[in-house]
Design brief:
The chain folds into two domains: about 5-130, Response regulator (Rossmann fold, 3-Layer(aba) Sandwich); about 145-295, Alpha-Beta Plaits (2-Layer Sandwich). Helices cover about 50% and strands about 20% of the residues. The protein has helices at about 15-20, 35-45, 60-70, 85-95, 110-135, 145-160, 175-180, 185-200, 225-240, 270-285; strands at about 5-10, 25-30, 50, 80, 100-105, 165-170, 205-210, 215-220, 245, 250, 255-260, 290-295. The strands form three sheets. Strands 2-1-3-4-5 form a five-stranded parallel β-sheet, sandwiched between helices. It has a five-stranded mixed β-sheet with strand order 7-8-6-11-12, sandwiched between helices. A two-stranded antiparallel sheet has the order 9-10. Helix 4 links the parallel strand 4 (about 80) and strand 5 (about 100-105).
Length: about 300
């Protein structure tokens, strides 16, 4: 696991030396002024900032305000470390977005405890965000995330003038699987398909569980013909896969796939392309399943 990175900002070298030594279990970056600190966070991945308030040119309050107004840095927690202990200064530290406040001279164990607590809190927050965006069974992105993220993919494709295609996927006769083997095995089949999708997809693709046994894959920089190739590879991989109940009994399954591509001339979101992929999927199911259908 990657070490947490802490940025310490203080114009007193002696303070920096003490903090660097105290936080030796982390990757530490130091800066002696706010300008350098703001440049560092734009170049490095920082997990926590320890920020002095009283500094020349730009004080800690202004540094924190700029951090919180920047979309790329606003989530980085800031712990103020300062000799200013009056109520107004403490209130201002929280008002500009500080997460915590430690008075100088600080007690090493107390400061270390505050740092660990804040980093742990950030881990919990990230985990909760991930849970909100992913399907708990498959660990793929969920429908909510797909709807939000697809717009960003669409805008990027428009800017780059590159194609954007979709796959809509459904497990064939899934009700029969549940009826014959039970819902627990049905869940295992869903997880197996999700794993196959992650193996087959390219790094830039985004796979989501859309609902039940239905999935969608967003394929950036991919033409309709190229999307058909991806769909074919996925279908063939599924055909050669199985879930093993016992040494002598295996559950096999197939999928149907609908393919479409975005028409940038009149589509301001992904919904029309998604509807075409869904219509194509319906045709694949209607025409016998275990096949790929395309609607431009």
């Amino acid at each position: 696991m990657k070490n947490k990175t802490i940025l310490i900002v203080d114009d007193t070298i002696a303070n920096l030396d003490v903090l660097v030594e105290l936080l030796d279990e982390y990757d530490v970056i130091d800066a002696t002024n706010g300008k350098d600190a703001l440049e560092i966070v734009n170049e490095e991945e920082v997990d926590l900032i320890l920020l002095d308030i009283m500094m020349p040119v730009m004080d800690g309050y202004e540094v924190c305000k700029r951090l919180k107004s920047n979309e790329n840095t606003k989530e980085i927690p800031v712990i103020f470390i300062t000799a200013k202990t009056d109520e107004e200064s403490i209130a201002k530290a929280y008002d500009v977005g500080g997460s915590d406040y430690v008075r100088k001279p600080f007690l090493p164990k107390e400061l270390l405890s505050r740092v660990k607590k804040e980093l742990k809190l950030q881990d919990v927050i990230q985990e909760l965000k991930l849970l909100a965006l992913t399907d708990p069974l498959t660990k793929l992105y969920n429908r909510r995330f797909f709807i939000d993220a697809s717009q960003a993919f669409l805008e990027m494709a428009k800017r780059e003038k590159s194609p954007l295609s979709l796959l809509m996927i459904d497990i064939d006769k899934f009700k029969n699987i549940n009826d014959i083997y039970g819902h627990q095995i049905g869940d295992e089949i869903i997880k197996l398909l999700a794993n196959i999708m992650l193996e087959v997809q390219r790094k830039s693709d985004m796979s989501c569980r859309y609902g039940g046994e239905e999935f969608v894959v967003l394929l950036p920089q991919t033409s309709l013909k190229e999307a058909q190739y991806v769909a074919q590879k996925l279908k063939e991989t599924v055909e050669t896969s199985h879930f093993e109940l016992t040494l002598k009994q295996k559950v096999t399954f197939t999928i149907s796939v609908g393919v479409s591509t975005v028409n940038f001339k009149n589509e301001i979101n992904i919904e029309k392309a998604l509807k075409r992929a869904d219509d194509a999927l319906y045709k694949a199911k209607e025409n016998g399943r275990n096949q790929i259908r395309t609607i431009k």
